[in-house]
Specification:
Length: 243
């Protein structure tokens, strides 16, 4: 049974934050803004992945904007939501490990432009929708923070890894991202591949609008299918699975 199904509103509101349940078998999506496409896929076509917990991270999205968009998932409503503190995210503490080729100046410049926040929301399927629309509940942890450091802090310190990773239109260059999430050997790839547990995501959603989204070259993955019309007629996202 999904761990979310038995949670009461009081447990969500004032209970101990279930960080391990949240991270195990999760999908991690840095530079996400408000893209719900991967949640829709995991809830429907990709339901065999068994993912009902989503960790979104984007330093360019403020809490006010998130609050405005929070209750906009088609066929779902907010069961309950609460703010989460940094100590709840890393109860075992976290000692940062600096990746090679780390541009500290660019990192500090961009991450300090916005105020950090973190909210946990549990969504429940509307009663007029059936199981074909998705699971009865899913969880979204939305972090207004930097994607590389957040991955390391969450997954390294809690000794786990996400089931899936999304690298979709990651905002390199004029998109306000200080690093290229797609590049092999860059900081995101490094923190994913050097997790002390030895674990890596089984699935990578990779794509966007434009060229060069069929060339995912991280070691150990092959494309299993393609989501067409992801961002309208020009968008395409590949689903890559570990070998």
């Amino acid at each position: 049974m999904n761990w979310l199904e038995n949670l009461s509103i009081d447990e969500i509101r004032i209970g101990k934050f279930p960080i391990q349940n949240m991270l195990d078998c999760s999908l991690y999506y840095p530079s996400c803004e408000f893209d719900g496409g991967v949640i829709k896929d995991c809830n429907t076509v990709g339901r065999n992945f068994g993912i009902s917990s989503f960790v979104y991270c984007d330093y360019a999205v403020g809490q006010r904007a998130f609050n405005q968009m929070q209750d906009t998932f088609t066929g779902y409503h907010v069961l309950h939501s609460r703010e989460i503190s940094p100590t709840e995210l890393t109860p075992n503490r976290w000692q940062p490990q600096i990746p090679p080729n780390f541009n500290r100046r660019a990192y500090e410049h961009w991450k300090n432009e916005w105020k950090a926040f973190c909210k946990w929301t549990v969504y429940e399927r509307d009663h007029l929708r059936g199981p074909q629309h998705g699971p009865a509940r899913f969880s979204l942890l939305y972090i207004g923070g930097e994607g590389v450091a957040t991955y390391q802090a969450l997954y390294w310190s809690n000794k786990t890894a996400p089931k899936a990773l999304a690298i979709i239109q990651p905002g390199t260059g004029f998109g306000l991202n200080w690093t290229d999430f797609r590049e092999k050997g860059a900081p995101l790839n490094w923190v994913v591949c050097n997790n002390p547990t030895g674990q890596q995501p089984d699935i990578v959603y990779y794509g966007g609008i434009g060229k060069n989204y069929d060339n995912f070259d991280w070691d150990g993955y092959q494309r299993s299918r393609v989501i067409h019309n992801y961002y309208g007629p020009r968008g395409e996202v590949g689903v890559w699975q570990s070998l």
